[in-house]
Structures are given as structure tokens and as C-alpha cells.
Amino acid sequence: MVEHYSDEKIEELETTARLIRRHIIQMIYDAGSGHPGGSLSAADVLVALYFDIMEHKPDDIKWPDRDRFVLSKGHAAPALYACLAETGYFPVEELKTLRQIGSRLQGHPDMRKTPGVEASTGSEGQGLSMGLGMALAGKLDRKKYMTYVMVGDGELNCGQCWEAAMSAAFFKTDNLIAIVDRNKLQLDGPTSQIMSIEPLADKWKAFGWNVIEINGHNFPELLDSLHKAKETNGVPTVIIANTVKGKGVSFMEGVVGFHGKCPDDKQYAQAMKELGEGFE
Amino acid sequence: MSTIKWPVEPQRPAFARALVALGHTHKDVVVASADVSTSTKTAEFAKHFPERHYNFGIAEQNMISACAGLATTGKVVYASTFAIFGTGRVYDQIRQSVCYPRLNVKLVVTHAGITVGGDGATHQMIEDIALMRALPNMTVIVPADAPETEKAVLAAADHEGPVYIRLGRANVPVCTTSEECQDFEIGKATTMRDGSDVTLVGTGIMVAKCIEAAEELEKHNVSARVINLSTIKPLDERTLIKAARETGAIVTAEEHSVVTGMGAAVALVLAENAHVPMKRVGIPDSFGESGTSEELMQKYGLTVDDIVDGAHDVLKRKK
Questions:
Q1: Would an 8 Å CB–CB cutoff place A171 in contact with chain B?
Q2: Cys-Cys crosslink for B236: which of A245, B16, B96, B189, Cβ 3.0 to 4.6 Å?
Q3: B168: DSSP letter
Q4: Tens digit of pLDDT for each residue in B133-172?
Q5: Distance between CA A124 and CA A156 in Å, rounded?
């Protein structure tokens, strides 16, 4: 353990994660469309980053030394927006404008519209390359900031991800950390049946990366792996975060159908009830 | 044939000169290559500023998105490869990573058009202007010769947002030495020669051919205006509409498919603003093939005679 976290701190992050999940359900329900499954699986990783690991200043969004985060799996935008709002980039109230005409909160992240969004993403496969560019600039300018990129496991079907993996190891960008949201489902079905990416850890190792595999819903493991990744020298690190698609809402967990489906009234009520602990 | 004795010069060394100059004046300029740096001449920049040059290998998609990432930190990024690999192959990356967030990535491609020659159709990019001008936030420049290449590359550095600069491989006649060509400005067409009967609008290597065609037409008592349309987006509509109204006939000439290239862009503006007889000289809707530059220009209708014929055609249709 690089840094010790008290039980209270872990509990606080878990409560924050429930709040973020409530926002996700609320936003998608209000918008009438969106991607709950992959937003819920990503939530704990994002909370670990935005509420603990990353050096950032929501009141000074262009601070040159800030850590960067790129959501390559842009369809998990609701999870990102909820974290940005709760850390103070824009009012929480604004979350209800998701996907509405004229809103700063687009269906997929837009760096020109939303304060705190570092990269415009949505077309799968490009975020790791963008993060690589940020990391290269950090090295060139001798800055200490880290760049974190979350990629989806379905997204790893894209050849461009592996172009980026190859070159990040080649350029020795140890200031680049990839986190795979390994929820094992993509739009059409299980990743093992649509386009298998296993053996995943071996692939990253073969490409020259430091590989850490964890339970992506376990905060002590998340925090520990992120600290280890930050301290790794000479090679980029990938954290394969094993997650559950739809995590936190019983009837969405592991269900392919909730990749891009808005909950109906009854499902919404049930989801909010399940995520109610600490918010009654 | 031609009566003008042009000095010739390739565009790529001019590109390299401008890059090295920018390396000295602009600390934030970085350059990205995709294995062909010795051909595109970005290797020259790498020689002077090795720490500011990245060779991404034959992985153009990664290169373009990484350039976008570099640009988010304030870098002015010049990405360079052959036109064939730097446009169609990475259209989505240019669209999503660069143009949508309006980032400072300057895409300078070489070996564009049919004059690549012997490599054949797979390496002859003749629809890139169409692709690039369709993108919101993109600026599209096709320099006429080496001096204009240097100016365009320098100007792109101080232009906010994405820029596409299209260069060829072959030697190009140096035709922008006259006084009116000295002040290069993105978005401004240059009238190279005045005339009253017809306007010849050229871009890239066809500008010199338009001037030669104008000389030829003069022998037949036809007064031809010549416009160098080096910026295709944003289009200098005012200059084009004025020329159409004053000369009453337009011929466009480009080393590009006539399907939605420069000529098509001009046609759309004139259709809405100034109806005059018009002829598009360019590559017909087809792929190219192997051959020498000269043979291909001949076969695919890109000669001075083709422009002269085009002028006679519109003059006949002129009321």
C-alpha cells in the first residue's frame, strides 16, 4: 500500500460513488436517452480519480499543471459530467440539461462546451492517442502532470487503440495511465462472443506496458493501483479494472440491453430506491 | 505549347524551410511524421529540433489523434504524410479529434494528385479537397508553387484552428514572383493577370498552366483574367463573383477530381450569385494509373490546351 486510506475515507468515496450513480440514472431518465450500463460500470474509477487521485482545480480549469483525464469511451459521458459537477466545474443543477438542445452537456463529451472536459470523444478508439499526445507534451515541457485515459473493453476492438499502445511504450510515456473498464459487454453482446480481446493482460504486456489487474469496484484496490501506476518509471501502465456493466442497479447488472437504453418510470423508481442508501 | 520559360522548384523543400524557420520563431511548434519524413521533408525539422519531432510510424490514425492531444496543451502541431494516407485513411480522426474541437493541428500533405506518377492509382489522391472542404472548422490551402508553399506554411502557424495544406511531389513552375503575389493571406484569392473576356481560376500546379493558357488565348484576341485560388476554404467569394460579373465566363482548373473539388466549390457560389457559362477542367470521375506526370496530365485532361479549349467552350456559350 503506497498510501494508507482510513475506513472513513473509503466509506466517503463509496457514498460519493452512489451519489454519482444517482445522478447518472437521473440524467439519463430526464434526457430520455443515454448509456446507463457503461456509465455505471465506470463510476467508481471516475470517483477515485476526480475525488482523490487527480491534481486539478475546478476553479482554474486551464491550470497548466493539472492532471488530465480523457474519457475515450465517450458514451459514459453522464458519469464524467456528474463527477465534474460534484467537484465544482459547473452547477449540479445543470446536469438535468443533458442531451437537450443548447445544453453544454452534449451526448458525448465536448471539450469546447463543457468546463473540465479535456478531450472531445465519442468516436471509439481515439482517446488513448489523444492522451498520448498530452503525455508527450508533458514530457517535452518537463511538467509533472499525469494523463489518465479510460478505454472501454469493447473499444479495444479498434486498431487505433493498439497503435497508441505500441507508440506509448515506444515513447516511454510513464506519465500516461490507461484504465480499461472491463465490463465484458459491448452493444451487441458479451465481448467474448462479439470480438474476443483475451488474453487481455498478455496483449498489453506484449505491447510493453506495465499491467495491473484489479476489481474496478473496490476502492482500496483502485487507489492502490493508481498510486502504483503513478510511481512506475519508464513504461506506461494499464489498469485492467474488472467491472460489472450496470453496477449498482440490480436489474441492469450484466444486462446487455441496458448498454444504451433509458429506464422507464418503474425502472427509474426502482433504481433510485436501490441507490438510496445515505440519500433518504 | 508553352511560351513562358518558368524556373521550376519542388514544394517540399520550401515546406521544410518554413518548418525550420517556425522552429526558431515559434517555441510551441512540434512536428509529427508517419514513416515518410524523408519524403515529406519533415526530417529536416527533425534534424534541427529532434526533441520536437515525433515519428509515429505507419500508424496515421494514432498520429492524428495524438496531434490533437498535443494541441490541447497549447502546441501548434504540424502533421505530415502523403495525401493518400493523411486524408481518407484518417478522415474520422481529423473530423472527431481535430476539427470538432477546433484544435491547432496543421495537416501538410505531400504527393497529392495524379502527378505522383508511377506509383499509380493507389497513391494518387484526387478527392482530398472534397473531403477536407466538407469538414466544419477546416481551412483548405493548395499553394501554387514553392514560394507560396513557404508563405502558407508560415501563415498557418498564426491561424487559429485546423489547416489542411496540399502539396505535390513533382517540380512546379515558380509563378508567384510578381508583386501582387507577395502578400499571401489565408482566404484571399490573387488576381495574377487582368482580363475582360473570361476568367481562368486555377489552384495548385494548375495556376501556372492558367497563365500559360491566358498567353495562348491572347494570340486569339481573347483577354483572360487569371485568379490563383490558393485558399479553397474559406472561399474568396467576392473576388470570384466580381470576376464572373466582369468577364462573364469562368473556367476552373485543378489537379483533382471534378467531383466536389475546387471547381465544384466555385460553381456553387456562382450558381447562387452570378450565372455565367462555366467549365471545370480537372480529373474526370475516375481513378488514375501509372505513367509519367506529363503523360498523366495529358491523358486526364490537365494541359494548357485543355484550359484553352475550356475557355473557347465558355466563350461560345456566352451571350
A1: yes
A2: B189
A3: -
A4: 999 999 999 999 999 999 999 999 999 999 999 999 989 9
A5: 9
